[in-house]
Each structure stands twice: as structure tokens, then as C-alpha cells.
Amino acid sequence: MQTLKVALAERSYPIHIGRNLITEANLILPHLKRKHVAVVTNTTVAPLYLEKLTQTLENAGVKVIAIVLPDGEAHKNAQTLNLIYDALLQNRCERNTTLIALGGGVIGDLTGYAAATYLRGVPFIQIPTTLLSQVDSSVGGKTGINHPLGKNMIGAFYQPQLVLADIDTLQTLPAREFSAGMAEVIKYGLIRDAQFFDWLEANISQLMDLDEAALTYAIYRSCENKAEVVARDEHENGERALLNLGHTFGHAIENAMGYGVWLHGEAVAAGTMMAADLSHRMNWLTADEVKRIHAILSAANLPLNPPKLGAEKYLDLMQLDKKVADGKIRLVLQQGIGKSVITSDYHAEKLKETLSL
Questions:
Q1: d(CA 201, CA 313)
Q2: The pLDDT of residue 321 is above 90
Q3: Is the pTM of this model over 0.85?
Q4: pLDDT in tens, 262-286
Q5: Domains of the chain
Q6: Which sequence positions are flagged as catalytic?
Q7: 257: left (phi > 0), else alpha (psi -120 to 50), else beta?
């Protein structure tokens, strides 16, 4: 097991990465205010890991309430959030009841937002079961739900007590979901860690074969990058926005196509190529650098060509992005491999050219 810390003063918390961590009650118990938890999961993950986690906790004397939600991005909404509230209220859960998110990014975001708002705040723990959630959404305290007009537009910054990234759960992850997670892993190399990007290029085949050592390193390095950024800019007032490389384009794709049609990581991958294309048009990225980005995303079996929505449709949807300021769409663009910038200082016509591809 490897451990690192998200350094947020009194709200700091550990991230444990390793095998079979779901069975390690000693990692969870120190973070419970009382031996009473509500495990929030979904219909896909529950048959795989809910019983194992429940037994781990009950054998340690913890009372467990299970809340099983429908699976999929389409259910990341207020109606599903209310199902969590209903169960918590029906079971008379108190402020010292800990919520445990057992699942991917949707479950983590829903559970975190429920924890932030139920009784004005109860503790929660992240046990992410997808690559995307292990390297990205479970770390940093972003929680929330989608609105029909925009993705993640309703939410809160609310940090977990603990993140347990059990890499054994990746063995049951569908290949498409694993590839979606790789988009976020690759992102860290692109925005701030050129050495990591070089390592990913050299080890992409081992990662796609689920090599344990390669996976553990990639997850650790990704979490390390995110933890450093979050520690400096918890509420995304500056540097943290760089973590959204490809996301402004990607969220527009998800919204236009219908939530869940494109997986989040797939949309981010296509959005990353759009960001690379615009960066190249701005003479910030060389043609060779664009080819390297294309090659590694392709090796991760990710879609590279965005849907043809037309420039006006893209612009309309991108106006709903959280990074919009004073009516201007701010984008994360590349100034080289491992160097990114958030800016509204781009040529509008060049953006339209990218959006019209």
C-alpha cells in the first residue's frame, strides 16, 4: 500500500492506494465518529463489492445502512440525490453518521454533495471503484449534481475524511470505462508533469494490460499531482482550473449528446484534442506535440473526433461552463507538453475553426 496526503490544514486527509483495501477495516475505523455508516453505491457496483465492504465493517462492530442507486451519469440529478436523503431520514441518521461512497465518479459526487448538505454537513469517505474516480473525482472535494442545462452546475466543495483506492476493483471495470479513466491520467502529464507524460508514453501498453506496478504508479502520480494543486487552490480560484483541460469542450459534448451517451473521460479526450488543435492554431503547440497527444489518447482506445455540433452550438453550450467570467469563455490550453494556461486570450475565429472541424 502507498499513502499520500491532501494537505488542507485541519481538513487534511490520506489517500491509500493498494490491493484489497476494502477488507482493511483498520484503515476506515479511525475516520468514523461513531460505528454507524451509510454506504451509497449503485446497481452495478453493489453485487461486486457491497457485501465485502459490509462484512468488513460489521465484523468490526459497525452498523451499516446500504443505499443502492441506479447506475449512470443520467441519474446524477436532484431526483437521485433525494433518494439518499430519503434513506438517511428514514434511518434517522445523525450528524456523526459517516457516508461512504462506494462506486465511480457519479456515486462519489452524489454522496459527497449529500454529505455536504444533510444536516448541514456530515462526514464522508470515498472508496472509488473506477480508474477515473481513483485518479480524479474522489480527490479534492468537488461534489455535485447535473442540471438539464449544464453539467456539475450545482454542488459544493466538501472534503472527504479518507480516500481508499483499491486497485483490485479495476479488474471488474469494463474496458471502455478503464479507457475513460486514462483520459484523466494523461491529463496530469499534459498540464503540469512532462516527465509523467514521457513515462505514460513508455508504459501505456502495460497500463492497458492492467499491470499492477504500472497501475499503482500511475494512480499515485496522478493523485500526487492533484493533491498538490488542491492544497494550493482548494476552491478553484486559480491554478486548480488547469485540471479542467478538455473539460469545457467535453462538458458541451456530454450535454449535447445526452448525459451518459459519451462517458465523461471519452468527452474529455475529444475535448483535449480540441484544446490541442486550438493551441496549435495559436502557435503554442508544435505539430509534433499534437501528434504525441493524439498518439497516446489513441493508444488508450479513446475517441479523438468530437461530434459535429457546429460552432454556434458548441459556443452556446460552452457558455454554461463554470469557468466563464464576465461573459467570456475561459479555456485551458497548452503551451507545450507539461505546461498549460487558463485564458480567454485566444482568437475567436481560431476557436470557431476548431469547433467547426
A1: 34
A2: no
A3: yes
A4: 999 999 999 999 999 999 999 999 9
A5: 2-171 (3.40.50.1970), 175-355 (1.20.1090.10)
A6: 120, 142, 184, 226, 236, 240, 244, 247, 251, 264
A7: alpha
